[in-house]
Amino acid sequence: MSRLEAGTVVRLGGAREVPFGYFLTDGEEDVLLHHTEVPEDFNLEQEHTVFLYQDHQGRLSATFTIPEIRKGHFGWAEVVEVKKDLGVFIHIGLQKDILISKDDLPELHRLWPEKGEYLFCSLKTDKKNRLFGSLTNENEIQKISKRASKTMFNQNVTGTVYRVLLEGTKLITEEGYLGFIHRSERTREPRLGEKVTGRVTGVKEDDGSLNISLLPRAHEAIDKDAELIFNYLVSRGGSMPYGDKSMPEDIKARFQMSKGAFKRALGKLMKEGKVIQKDGWTHRKDQG
Questions:
Q1: Lower CB density within 10 Å: C or N end of the chain?
Q2: What's the whole-model pTM score?
Q3: Distance of CA 41 to the CA centre of its chain
Q4: What range(s) does the S1 motif domain occupy (predicted)?
Q5: What is the pLDDT of residue 1?
């Protein structure tokens, strides 16, 4: 069995030159150093610190580029390609990008990261010593995180999703705080690797992590709903057959909001003097 493993940093001596590069050795096994990886000051007589990976032909090869992300070392890597039949490829600084297998990604493709997004990950090898990307675990993400204080309550934070669960979404903020978005606190499920912005609804005493909501604050929701209602009113020439007495199911079908939200938004428009109600209808005030 090979003693040299892809994804690791080793010291190797020079063995011999070949037309396409050099072979380095640990005394028992030779590893190819491609000519594209050979620095100008390379000396075959010296020992060299190199990183091991598989080249495009699957051969164990060496590079003088030592990536931050390797076996036992985690870091942020950009997603550079998505292939639904294989998984996603990440760039860790090598000439060859590394695959994170679809077996390690969410079952739903819509929850896979998109090109240009980032994952906190490491490297691993399978039984054939093939190199793959490996997503972070809770222990590793906690090593780069910090406790949040109570002053974070109700503040907006932006973070990157590092894990998707049935009950919700886990992320780490730009400041390094760990956060959790319960499924009831979002209108859609964020992707792995996606950056999202939400508000802090709680700071946990035990570990200083955050509870986060992606839903708008009450006044923001009212403003948005009021704008939607008023735009619909204008599109109908200034009058619509909806008001305080309308049935909840009719409001839901037309505006995709609850009757309570509708009444709050309508009340805001009335208070601002933009609309009036008459005989079950709502009119722009200048047309009432």
A1: N
A2: 0.75
A3: 40
A4: 154-215
A5: 45
